[in-house]
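Ticket #4471: structure export looks truncated?
Reporter: QA, pipeline team
Priority: medium

Steps to reproduce: submit the single chain below to the structure queue and open the exported record.
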Amino acid sequence: MFDNKRAAPHRFAIMSQLHANCVQIGDYALLLRGPSGSGKSSISLRLIDAGGFLIADDRTDLVARDGRLIATSPATIAGLCEVRGLGIVRGLPQRPEGDVRVVIDLVDDPELVERMPHGTSEEICGISVARWTLCATDLALEAKIRVALALATGELRLES
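Actual output as written to the record:
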């Protein structure tokens, strides 16, 4: 007889896979989303070159764990990064997983980026994550990504 008062021996986590790159900066990770050719890998490479770590390129596996959104790379592409014009590269600084705190949606038209947006979030695997839209060609993109991550982690705050 099944005793429904006892904890089940196995818990199945909510999992998802996104067409996104994932990079860790400091203690936390971010997702870069956008259509193919939008610059996700190039931006990831610039963030890694500035001290970040590759979690996943092109596809990112996500799971809710202990109230956090944890990102990993699918095993078949773990440690690989497509560097357009050079090929698929292995050996960049990487981490096996990251605690995702922000999603950056990349657009190619600066007119699609609100000047003073209201903070938004998105639920992924049951976890609410901050979300910002930024232009992939913005000359200050890496700095803005770092600010967005600092806002998401509470290191910085927006004035109302």
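Status: closed, not a bug. The export was complete when the record was re-opened. Leaving a note from the reviewer for reference: The CA atoms of residues 21 and 58 lie 5 Å apart.
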